[in-house]
Write a structure and sequence with these properties.
The chain is α/β, with parallel strands linked by helices. Helices cover 23% and strands 16% of the residues. It is globular and about 75 Å long.
């Protein structure tokens, strides 16, 4: 029985096992072949710093604005606090929030202000990719090359990303968003009624298409859109505890989705998981091979650790899965990623 005809209930990893683009015995060859076949270098000129954000134009934003019908607003961000998912891998820690002035200081009059004036102030220390965030174009390299074929060492140095720093995207990510609630759409086929994909489940192009068909016309995906994938893993860990959410097994996109990501001409894609793609990865000994295609070769913006649960409930209730999305990164000069508080307006 081939992978494309096997019932979903017979496999945890979806339909990717026999994919012709996943040659498990040759991971490097598979990655190189995919990068060669699906590559946007030079598409917007040799000096380009925006990658797929070039697909968002004024007409796209006008189209997106027309989607606001009720004025409902949903934050798609996880909290930024010490109770977050990070466990210290590669020095990624949870945010540390400290008060430098408090109401206690004001009550006691020891702040040095005149006439009873008082105030509070605070500071936060955190890795830029510790919670809901965008991966910038300087975050991942392929064979020593950064986005648009530049030498990685010419792009990111100890001074930061000198070319494609996240500040270049500060005003760009306002567009049509589309929620693909894959967890809810595929649940019945997996014998699940909780709307959650199991860890290790590889989402293939067929799964994405099936989700679009089941959700209806408002789920069509087109040029300049940002796609938000709900796997249900975030729902699960918020209920059961973070566990190995940060870097452990997870549902996510299969390596075989790279051609879909390329031909769909989306501006960005975000998931409710730590690492966007399925984990364990589909090649033995590999580390995040879909990142290796998507960021340096496609120039595609990837969002991770988003929380689409509230939005998903609203979309399921009225059958509308598209919305105006604003998801601006902080313009941190030279950063290769940024925290973000994405807002979906319906």
């Amino acid at each position: 029985m081939t992978a494309n005809t096997a019932p979903l209930s017979n496999t945890v990893t979806g339909e990717s096992a026999d994919s012709p683009v996943i040659r498990r015995e040759d991971p490097l060859g598979s990655i190189r072949a995919m990068a060669k076949a699906h590559n946007n270098w030079g598409r917007w000129g040799e000096d380009d710093v925006l990658g797929t954000l070039n697909f968002i134009d004024a007409a796209k934003r006008v189209e997106a604005a027309a989607l606001v019908k009720t004025g409902e607003a949903f934050s798609l961000s996880q909290p930024f606090d010490t109770n977050g998912p990070q466990k210290g891998w590669r020095r990624r820690t949870n945010p540390v929030h400290t008060m430098t002035d408090t109401g206690v200081d004001a009550e006691r009059g020891n702040q040095g202000f005149p006439h009873g004036f008082g105030g509070a102030d605070d500071v936060i220390a955190m890795p830029l990719q510790c919670s809901t965030q965008w991966d910038g174009l300087g975050h991942i390299f392929d064979q020593g090359k950064a986005w648009n074929g530049r030498a990685a060492g010419d792009v990111v140095t100890s001074e930061g990303d000198l070319v494609t720093g996240i500040e270049t995207a500060a005003a760009k990510i306002v567009t049509r968003g589309v929620l693909l609630d894959v967890g809810r759409a595929l649940g019945p086929e997996l014998g699940r009624n909780d709307g959650e994909l199991p860890d290790g489940f590889a989402i293939t192009p067929e799964h994405l298409q099936r989700t679009i068909e089941r959700q209806g016309a408002s789920s069509r995906v087109g040029r300049g859109d940002v796609v938000v994938i709900r796997t249900g893993q975030h729902t699960r860990v918020r209920r059961d505890g973070w566990g190995d959410y940060a870097g452990g097994s997870a549902p996510g996109l299969s390596f075989s989705t790279a051609p879909w990501l390329h031909r769909s001409e989306i501006a960005g894609i975000a998931t409710d998981t730590w690492g966007f793609e399925v984990r364990p990865n589909e090649f033995d000994g590999a580390f995040q091979p879909l990142h290796q295609i998507a960021i340096p070769n496609l120039g595609l913006f990837l969002g991770e650790m988003w929380d689409p649960d509230g939005l998903a409930e609203a979309c399921a209730a009225d059958g509308r899965y598209d919305f105006l999305l604003t998801a601006a990164p902080l313009p941190i000069t030279g950063a290769v990623g940024s925290p973000v508080n994405p807002i979906a307006l319906r």
